[in-house]
Structure formats: structure tokens, C-alpha cells
Amino acid sequence: QGQLVESGGGLVQAGGSLRLSCVAYGLTFSAYAMGWFRRAPGKEREFVAGISRNGETTSYTASVKGRFTISRDGDKKTVYLQTHSLEPEDTAVYYCAAGHTTSATRTYSSPAVYNYWGQGTQVTVPS
Is the pLDDT of residue 88 over 90? Predict the structure, then answer.
């Protein structure tokens, strides 16, 4: 049974940075596209970033382009979300997700594609 465990969230002032990590257990990591989603208070869950199985393709929601970077390390079975220039609007619980796919190069923004989800890590940026 696969499991995803996130870490790295916290309280950071506006303009600051955090690196979120997500370790995959019990999965053949290379068979999964990975994604980060977030849910802000009172809002729907939204796609943040995705990375293909081979790590060569990435995609981002418009509001984080140029500020966030997703990456993966196959040896460590870990996906990262490096965040910079954080804003109060980035305050949310951040979830990583793994989606089994036969495509080595596609990324996915739909939650329905993902088979496994982490428990979430809180990011708070005070206004």
C-alpha cells in the first residue's frame, strides 16, 4: 500500500521561501506522475504544480509561475516544491499526490488522475 508523507510547511513572512518535500513509500516511484495541490480556508482544492514521470515536463497554475518550482529525485523517492516570494494568498494546506500513468512525459492537473494523497502540510503567510 502506497503512502505519501509531506514535510516542510510552516509560518513564513511575506516574501519568504519554503521547500516542501514529499516522500513516497511503497510505490514504484518512477511509474507515477507527481503533483502538488493546495486548499486554502473556505476554498476548493486547487492544482499548484505537476511533474512528469521522467521529470522533464513540469506545469504550474498561473498564480505561482515564476515563484514555485517542482522537482523530483528518483533515488530518494521524493518530490519537492520550492517556493519563493510567498504571499498571504499562498496560505493553505499543501498536499502532494501520485498518479500512475503510462506516459513518461505528461503532467496532470486534475485531481481525478491521482491515486495517492499525502496528509498535507500547512503553509501560513501572515498578511
Answer: yes
